[in-house]
């Protein structure tokens, strides 16, 4: 959205993009108590959203993000409020840790914080991008059965190596019908909806009665409409997920250390390779891509 100029807020120039960062505290100001020099930290997507509800109202929507409302993290040094940082996982290096604040937390917030995922439930993940692969890994760590949809057989094979029980090529079949068949018509307990637009109708068709659809992506469009009969009789929870708060990120970091989850990084670029990195992002990565100083 930053590249295409479709951010829902005006940007202040000169502008530093990117919301995600992992690094080391160089120095601290007077009165800082949360971190000391030398501490390994990661950024938060919403620097002011600590827990509970974000500070906003029905007219002025909560969108005070890093790399948007606030200056971003694509720099060698950044100055941030101590409340906008979280301690890095001990089991991840900086490149791996840098993938958690947006994509990782979004998947965690959808499945665990809001979804209360339980072992034995079914989860359908759409695509193989950053949020989708984190959702696959988190769902498997919680004992869920995971189905992945993609337009690439190669990426589906990679997803199965990460633990997906089934892969459905959305270009070769009706993925919603396939999902119903794979669950003996029970439907999917939790769908990670990363496409949006008309695709949400298919998610409603595939979801279980009283299941859950987490609406995360809008790749196919921002306008949605649904058949009322199916919506009323299935009565699913359809919830928008806008990343998450700091307390949930801290929970996720602890879970990463306990479960040994390792983020999937398809490629690492140097700072001076930003253009190539953005091109890679635009054509779609399997998991995440990362920018490093060295």
Summarize the structure.
The chain is an alpha/beta fold.
Beta-strand portion reads 15-25%
- Helix coverage percent: 25-40%
Spatial ordering of strands, largest sheet? 6-5-4-7-8-9
Mean pLDDT: 95
Major pleated sheet:
6 strands, parallel
Task: Tell me the overall shape.
Answer: globular
Topology order in helix (H) and strand (E) letters: EEEHHEHEHEHEHEHEHEHE
Radius of gyration, in Å, reads 19 Å
Strand-pairing-aware structural class? alpha/beta
Low-confidence stretches: none
Number of helices: 9
Number of strands: 11
Note the gap between the termini.
Answer: 27 Å
Describe this structure in words.
- The protein has 294 residues and is an alpha/beta fold.
- The protein contains nine helices and eleven strands.
- It has helices at residues 94-97, 100-114, 130-141, 153-161, 175-182, 199-206, 228-234, 246-259, 274-283; strands at residues 22-24, 40-43, 85-87, 122-126, 145-150, 166-169, 188-193, 207-215, 237-240, 265-270, 288-292.
- The strands form three sheets. The protein has a six-stranded parallel beta sheet with strand order 6-5-4-7-8-9, with helices on both faces. A three-stranded antiparallel beta sheet has the order 1-2-3.
- α2 packs across α8 (246-259) and α5 (175-182) runs parallel beside α6.
- The two termini are 27 Å apart.
- 40% of the residues are buried.
- The mean pLDDT is 95.
């Amino acid at each position: 959205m930053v590249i295409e100029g479709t951010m829902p807020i005006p940007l202040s120039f000169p502008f530093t993009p990117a919301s995600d960062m992992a690094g080391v505290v160089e120095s601290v100001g007077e009165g800082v108590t949360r971190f000391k020099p030398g501490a390994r930290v990661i950024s938060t997507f919403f620097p002011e959203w600590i827990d509970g509800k974000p500070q906003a109202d029905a007219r002025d929507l909560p969108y005070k993000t890093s790399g948007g409302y606030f200056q971003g993290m694509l720099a060698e040094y950044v100055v941030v409020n101590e409340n906008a940082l979280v301690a890095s996982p001990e089991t991840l290096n900086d490149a791996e840790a840098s993938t958690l604040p947006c994509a990782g937390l979004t998947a965690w917030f959808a499945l665990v914080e809001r979804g209360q995922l339980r072992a034995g439930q079914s989860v359908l993940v759409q695509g193989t991008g950053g949020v989708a692969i984190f959702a696959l890994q988190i769902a498997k760590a919680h004992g869920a059965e995971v189905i992945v949809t993609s337009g690439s057989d190669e990426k589906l094979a990679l997803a199965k190596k990460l633990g997906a029980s089934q892969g459905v090529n959305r270009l070769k079949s009706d993925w919603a019908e396939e999902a119903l068949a794979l669950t003996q018509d029970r439907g999917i307990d939790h769908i990670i909806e990363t496409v949006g637009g008309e695709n949400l109708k298919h998610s409603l068709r595939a979801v279980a009665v009283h299941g859950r659809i987490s609406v995360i992506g809008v790749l196919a469009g921002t306008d949605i409409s649904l058949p009322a009969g199916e919506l009323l009789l299935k009565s699913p929870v359809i919830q928008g997920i806008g990343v998450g708060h700091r307390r949930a990120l801290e929970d996720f970091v602890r879970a990463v250390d306990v479960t040994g989850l390792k983020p999937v990084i398809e490629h690492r670029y140097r700072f001076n390779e930003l253009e190539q990195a953005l091109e890679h992002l635009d054509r779609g990565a399997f998991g995440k891509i990362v920018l490093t100083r060295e």
